[in-house]
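User: I'm new to structure prediction. If I give you an amino acid sequence, what do you actually give back? Let's try with this one:
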Amino acid sequence: MTDQSVELEQVGTAGAAQAPQVADDQLIAMLVGRARSEGLQLTGEGGLLQQLTKRVLESALEGEITDHLGYDKHEATGRNSGNSRNGTRSKAVLTDVGPVEIKVPRDLTGTCERRCIDHERC
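Assistant: Good question. You get back a string of structure tokens that encode the predicted 3D arrangement of the chain. For your 122 residues, that looks like this:
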């Protein structure tokens, strides 16, 4: 029996509280395995950690602008609402894994305050 099947059996007997942890562990193992098979470094410029950091930050920014505007991207309720998404701009963010170039979504009126990347207005 593999470690993975043992973990899955433990989830079934231990309850749903452990299920997210096992799913997270499996996702991480899959990402690291894929990076290794493709020759991608874990750290350094363009490495797995830098790419994950970029995606997490951009996802958080998308969530913030969605909350600010009150509707999801491409949703019809945003049309003629007085404020809407207005493209993106690039920003270099210094992180623990090095500088990461991210795309920061903008709103038409410029009233969306960013909390997830720094304390200054973006």
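You can read the tokens as a compact description of the fold. Here is one thing that stands out. Residues 1-14 have pLDDT under 50 and may be disordered.
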